Amino acid sequence: MRARVVVTGLGVVSPIGIGVSEFWKAALSGQSGISAITSFDPFSMDGYRSKVAGQVRNFAVERFLDSPHGERVDRYAQFALVAAKEALADSGLQMAKENPHRVGVIVGAGMGGMVMGEREITQLYQQQKPHRVHPNFIPVITLNSASGIIAMAYGAKGPNLTISTACSSSAHALGQALHCIREGRADVVITVGADASITPLVFAGFCSLRALSSKFNDQPEKASRPFDRMRDGFVMGEGAGTLILESAAHAKKRKARVYAEIAGYAATSEAYHMVIPREDGVDVAHTMRLALADAGMTPAQVDYINAHATSTIIGDAVEAKAIRQLFKSRADKIAISATKSLIGHTLGAAGAIGGIASVLALHTGQIHPTANYDDPDPACALAGLSRSAQERRMKVALLNAFGFGSNNAAVVLKQATK
Amino acid sequence: MATDPTISLKIRTALGEYLKRDPDTILITQHLRDDLGLDSMAVIELLYRIEEAFDLQIPDQDLVGLTNVGHVVNYVEKRLGKTASPASTKKPAKLSKPKGKKKS
Hints:
The complex is a heterodimer.
Chain A: E1 5-14, E2 17-18, H1 20-28, E3 34-36, E4 39-40, E5 43-44, E6 52-54, H2 75-91, E7 103-108, H3 114-127, H4 137-141, H5 145-154, E8 160-163, H6 169-182, E9 188-195, H7 200-208, E10 239-247, H8 248-253, E11 260-269, H9 282-294, E12 304-306, H10 313-327, E13 335-337, H11 340-343, H12 350-364, E14 366-367, E15 390-391, E16 396-403, E17 407-415
Parallel strand pairs in A: 7-8, 7-9, 12-13, 12-16
Antiparallel strand pairs in A: 1-2, 1-10, 1-11, 3-6, 4-5, 9-10, 11-17, 14-15, 16-17
Helix pairs in contact in A: 2-5, 6-12, 9-10
Chain B: H1 5-19, H2 40-54, H3 69-80, H4 86-89
Helix pairs in contact in B: 1-2, 1-3
């Protein structure tokens, strides 16, 4: 029999709070973490179409870590370290009592160390002095720097992987961690999603792709509005989320508090387009169906969906269509919320932070509001969406995440058994 | 051996910043690895700072002789003087094995 996998610890760095309790309180009250980007020092935002983002304010890694591990890694990996520290403490796991070879780290990251990456590239092209490229440039921009530094910080010698599938990276990290524990290759996996690339070049790139909201530059908190008629693109965010996944047997043995169970996962490709989803929603519906089958469940059992819902015109409509295809008449009975309405799209961190919102929904019976869902778009109206927090009895949640490169992920979560 | 106090101070200051300690506690005789705890990557980072501070380029073949603070100070002095090719003027000290190997 394959091992059951449970969540025993949570940690988060987000535009609406550093730390789970601050994050969840803000999320339930519908607080927006979206604000104006005042400048990309040293130049202004004048040339950018979009000027808003979900930024983590006043973050200084030394305030959160008492070890030097955060000093030589980029911002996204610092976020990852801070979220991992909180999650480990929350789980009560003591590494000194664990077999280090049975503790893994799996990180989902879409962009990686772009703060230093952009700075070094710019300097090289401007100054043409190759010998002035920083010796830490390669270790910092290598996409597994976060999974590596977390392992070093905690002596975790089990499987150490980085999943990079753009915006679905950390939903896949959750799925891969589930497989890893199910297959008996680890007892515990520190599962992380992290990205911090609100940087001049990456932001310009998303602007050029016409993917970002630009209608609400004067009202930043209105810019991210999934499923609303006025939505006009996503809002970039940054942050990290960590979930401690472990086998139910291991958690039981150490008498750990269990938040929820990770019960199923599916990964698919639409094999269609680098940045556009198939408009018929068939592949998204198929992915959700597969994840439920992996969990041994049917669509009839789903109570809550943490939607991918980035606030793009096409993406939200496709997801809503897929939900209708799969759940049919039940589609309007399922509670749905879009975490990105509050914090923007944290790219590689989105699956993990959405995962945390899903775990907390199952654990507390509360669902955070979908901000700015003021005027439901008929193309994607679903009755389970609400501008207000909802209280529901929920046993099963579904987490969706889709990424550039035509890839989809879905993760099924179950309420912890008493 | 006599060292230029300005150069020595600049190098010890760079080391102090890197190690987060008072430059006055860093001695010219101290070994970069054994006494100051710098691994091979940290030595490379230190030399990167020194290149910046003195507007120098240190060729790879010169690294082997730079194992203690005094070596670094002397090396920089020579480079800032009239020596054209420091790599060829001095037989490098025997290289001790680096603490950690870098994986590619």
